[in-house]
Design a protein that fits this description.
This protein is of the alpha+beta class and 236 residues long. It folds into two domains: 1-69, no CATH class; 72-235, no CATH class. It is built from eight helices and four strands. Strands 1-2-3-4 form a four-stranded antiparallel β-sheet. Helix 3 (92-100) packs across helix 4 (110-123) and helix 4 crosses helix 5. The radius of gyration is 21 Å and the shape is globular.
Length: 236
């Protein structure tokens, strides 16, 4: 009730939604019987999880800033609105968006340059800029009715994240025609598993699960294989 709304999460209410919220409150009827599970010690709504005014202002202001329109630290993958930031200013805060986002029309080679620079820095044994040990944070948010759910949350370092990204591009390396991009953007990888290659046919959770696997350096989700096989069957 007292938390400012968070805006900019794709699929959530345009007026904003909340991460911290309680739907019900004790009614006169509830007062007569046992305390409902959502009203521990008869505390109603937000009083179940009290947070100080300064932390509330801090987290909502920061998230709204990262989710703002045109934010260079925001990436939309499937139904997950993902934001990235470091404990201090680092190139990776925006580079990761350029690497996994669709190539810009005004600069189609931007993604290739970013990935190439990342490969070179890893092969030389250090991340460019000396930020390898800088802590890095990744937050994936998804709409959930009138609320926002945390799809995934990761704390890592710039160097570790860079290693995972390089490993991903090495894993999916494939011989291709000269006019195709050297490094396949995440959107095109996912679209290639969808029927007719259309974005609307990408399974809703597949995008977020695949991005999470890449960023954490884990195995790709089994649903990625399932989607690929289903497209082969559908289109023969």
């Amino acid at each position: 009730r007292l938390h400012p709304a968070i805006k900019g999460v794709w699929g959530a209410q345009s007026s904003g939604a909340n991460i911290v919220s309680v739907n019900n409150k004790i009614s006169g009827k509830n007062n007569a019987g046992p305390t409902p599970a959502f009203a521990s010690y008869r505390k109603q709504q937000g009083f179940n999880s009290p947070i100080g005014e300064r932390p509330v202002f801090a987290y909502t202001t920061a998230i709204n800033h990262l989710l703002r329109k045109g934010s260079p630290q925001r990436l939309q993958v499937g139904d997950s609105s993902t934001v990235f930031w470091a404990e201090k200013r680092a190139d990776m805060e925006t580079s990761v968006v350029d690497i996994f986002g669709e190539p810009r029309k005004d600069d189609p080679d931007r993604q290739t340059r970013k990935v190439t620079a990342l490969f070179k820095s890893i092969h030389h044994g250090r991340y460019v800029g000396g930020d390898a040990d800088t802590r890095f944070f990744i937050l994936g948010l998804a709409p959930n009715a009138a609320r926002i759910s945390v799809r995934f949350w990761q704390v890592t370092t710039v160097g570790e994240l860079a290693g995972h990204i390089v490993r991903h591009f090495e894993d999916i390396r494939i011989v291709h025609r000269g006019k195709q991009p050297e490094y396949l953007p995440l959107f095109r990888l996912l679209a290639s598993t969808a029927v007719q290659g259309k974005e609307k046919n990408i399974p809703p959770n597949l995008a977020g699960d695949t991005l999470r696997a890449i960023l954490e350096g884990c195995s790709y989700p089994r649903t990625l294989l399932t989607a690929s096989v289903q497209r082969c069957r559908a289109e023969r």
